[in-house]
Amino acid sequence: MKRIILSIDGMTCSACSNGLEKYLNKQNGIYNASVNLVMANATVEYDEKILTIPKIEEFVKKAGFKSLGEFKEIKIEEKSKREKGKFILFTFLAILLMYISMGHMVNLPSIPYLDAHENPINYMVALLLLTILFFIYGFDILKNGYKNLIHKTPNMDTLVGIGVITSFLYSLYNMYLVLTGNHDQIMNLYFESSSIVIYFVKLGRYIDGVSKDRTKEAIQKLVKITPNKAVIKVNGEEKEVTLDEIKKGNIVVVRPGEKIAVDGEIITGQAHFDDSFITGESKPNNKTVGDKVLAGSLNYDGYVEYKAERIGKESTVSEIVRLVIEASNTKAPISKVADKVSGIFVPLVIGIAIITFFIYWFVTKDIETSLTTFVTILVVACPCSLGLATPLAIVVSEGLCASNGILIKKSEILENAQKVNTVVFDKTGTLTYGKLKIAKVLNYSEMQEKELLQYVGSIEQKSSHPIGKAFTDYLTENKIEPLEVTEFENLPGIGIKGKVNGQEFLLGNLKILQKYQTENPYKEDENKLALDGNSIVYVVKNQEIIALIGVNDIVRKNAKEVIENLNQNNIETVMLTGDNTQTAEIIAKEIGITKVISNVVPAEKANTIKKLKEENRVVMMCGDGINDSPALSSSDIGVSVKSGTDIAMDSSDVILTQNDLNSIVKLIHISKKTLRIIKENLFWAFFYNCLMIPIAIGVLKPLGISITPMIASLAMVFSSITVILNTLRLRKVDM
After folding, report:
1. Is 236 contained in some domain?
2. Which of 275, 426, 579, 628 is catalytic?
3. Is 426 an annotated catalytic residue?
4. 29: left (phi over 0), alpha (psi -120 to 50) or beta
């Protein structure tokens, strides 16, 4: 199975995207297709043995749209002067059309030679020509409506198309009667109804287009972070190139005040860099040879040369954008309900309109009233607001999350996060910074402490665990050369082992003693280290403990505040760690967590999550994404606190790029607001249709309340605007 995201041209409303999605999902060889109106793209999972990309693009064309190839970037389409000019022109023509056809109703002076009674032919021809112009202006609506009807996926365009064409053909018939002598039919022309309906639909889409562009702004800011050009070294000489020309392995030069062009590793120089767009750290980071730099980082004060490692789509910024796009292309469960309703709603409305037409015709024998009612029902019932209700809210929320350093891989997370009642935290690297330091060394061997730490540090530097960094930092700070390590082995959840100068060392937590059946005669020392809040590294050689090393971590500055906030919202917090009980409980007490589960390996963490879920809890697991993968996968929502450079390899549902625990509170808050907005949108969309369809049918005519096709089209626009404005309230969510 392969997967591709295609840019789609020609989608003008939610009904278009739903119609294309349904059509693609009917095709043999397509496993799943999801169409995103706001981002103007389609994600297609297909069988490469059956289909090719050109074939999929052919399906898109048959559905009435155009594929622009593989999706590469987010574009905010600015309205050109030509487009604005066209809209202004048709606004003027709409006013002119209304003046010619209805000015006499409000005693406005008639336009010379266009009076309906004195110059009926001129009057009719003027209306006909203006209507033809509006049909050209709204040709996309008519075309899409026809194609969706042919593909048995009728949508909003189908309703509008049937309505305006029916009204137009009836007006042509009456025009023929007038020309053959029946001048009474001059008042039964409905050219203006067809034209104004098209105008209001285009007006709604113009406003909708502007609103959709606004939802992309937060994401587009990421795209603009990287510079357009960079300087590389070729045969010792500097050369200015575009980003597309940079290849992996190129040596890139960046001077003070310039931005990093692609992800890479410094090979010469040092400088302070602003990585706040990824890490959230306002303080510039000092980086030197061997450190990683991220595309978009600003060099404050030094000359640096770095080797290009991750270019184009592989860069951290591109990875963030890709994740946001893919999340936007997934559908939350609540949106699927709206899609199903829309799929049933359109055929139902067409059926109601046809039945109403024949009832009116049978009862009144008045074809004019029957036809007007038929057109009014079709126009007023357009489900555009219903289709916009969920996807627009989801995209706005995902943009809001992205701007707050929260990357969501599936849009259903936005619906489910507000259901969370238990948040489980890993300790090291999550509740703490993972920036450990060696606090105490209890040396029971014959080696000097410096020699002991050289052996231990040489092995630990091969580990990916945060504790290993404390030893690596010790070697660097004390300018101690690491020794060669052989037969290194990682023992997940327990520790590591390796040989130095032919001697095997075991390094790890309490479980390593159990695994290798090692006696512990130093329990009193162990307790003292633990009471001081240290994580303990047991150093074992020849099945004997030769040292206990206490390593201290730093609690994240806002951890206590986050735990308090969650507890106040009746969300239980749990610490789940492989560290010893005493150390874990000291940290837990400091930040306010009452439930601690310690001394657990990764597999046990996953089982703990499953047990919590069996208690009917909705569990969010927050970990560092290294040893916590099984637990993250087992939870309802897996949240990873880690740096931007690891984004591509992460397996969690949510990534906190700013390493800020407060983002968890923000995510739950945004989720609650999003679901509330979606429910409000759906209510107003359903309320509108439930109210307006009976009025269009004529149920309230005895009370003197009725509407025309023009008023129906205006009401349809207001329905969509209501949903758009309500959704944009999300942009002002109080963080």
Report:
1. yes
2. 426
3. yes
4. left
* pLDDT exceeds cutoff 60 at 218: no
Q: Which H, E and C letters describe 301-325, residue by residue?
A: CCCEEEEEEECHHHCHHHHHHHHHH
Q: How many CB atoms lie within 10 A of CB 615?
A: 8
Q: What DSSP string describes 663-681?
A: HHHHHHHHHHHHHHHHHHH
DSSP H or E segment with residue 184: none
Question: How far apart are alpha carbons 201 and 193 in whole angstroms?
Answer: 12
Q: Which domain holds residue 246?
A: 227-314
User: d(Cα 301, Cα 299) in Å, to the nearest integer?
Assistant: 6
Residues 254 and 231: their CA atoms lie apart, in Å, by 7
Distance separating alpha carbons of residues 190 and 126, to the nearest angstrom: 13
Place of tokens 């009904």: 15
DSSP assignment letter at 706: -
CATH of the domain at 462: 3.40.1110.10
**How many CB atoms within 10 Å of residue 639?**
28
682 domain residue, yes or no: no
Rounded Cα distance, 172 and 320, in Å: 55
Residue 399 in domain:
yes
CATH assignment of the domain containing 54: 3.30.70.100
CA-based Rg of the chain, rounded to a whole angstrom? Answer: 33
Sign of CA dihedral 323, 324, 329, 330: positive
Please enumerate in sequence order all residues whose Cβ is within 8 A of that of 415, keeping only pairs 6 or more positions apart, or say none.
332, 333, 334, 671, 674, 675
From CA 541, how far away is CA 307, in angstroms rounded?
Answer: 41
For residues 399 and 218, give the distance between their C-alpha atoms in angstroms, rounded to a whole number.
Answer: 5
Outline where 231-332 has alpha helix (H).
276-279, 316-328
Helix (H, G, I), strand (E, B) or coil at 578: coil
| Across 503-516, average pLDDT | 91
Query: DSSP states of 695-728 as a string?
Result: HHHTTTGGGT----HHHHHHHHHHHHHHHHHHHG
| pTM score above 0.85 | no
Looking at the DSSP bridge assignments, the partners of residue 597 are 576
What is the pLDDT, as a whole number, of residue 131? 92
> b or e along 493-525 (b: 16 or more beta carbons within 10 Å of the residue's beta carbon)?
bbbbbbebeeeebbbbbbbbbeebeeeeebeeb
Domain-terminating residue out of 299, 314, 329: 314
Name 498's Cβ contacts closer than 8 Å, sequence gap at least 6. Answer: 459, 462, 485, 486, 487, 488, 489, 504, 505
Asked whether residue 574 falls in the same domain as residue 590, the answer is yes
Higher pLDDT, 55 or 295: 55
Convert the pLDDT of each residue in 578-590 to its tens digit. Answer: 877 877 888 898 8
Q: Is 588 exposed, middle or buried (0-12, 13-18, 19+ CB in 10 A)?
A: buried
Same domain, 504 and 468: yes
> Is 332:659 a contact under the CB 8 Å cutoff?
no
In a domain, 524, yes or no: yes
Cα distances from 11 to residues 209, 218, 442, in angstroms, run: 11, 22, 69
Per DSSP, 545 falls in state E
Question: Residue 700 is encoded by which pair of tokens?
Answer: 């309230």
Stretch (H or E) spanning 407 = strand 406-408
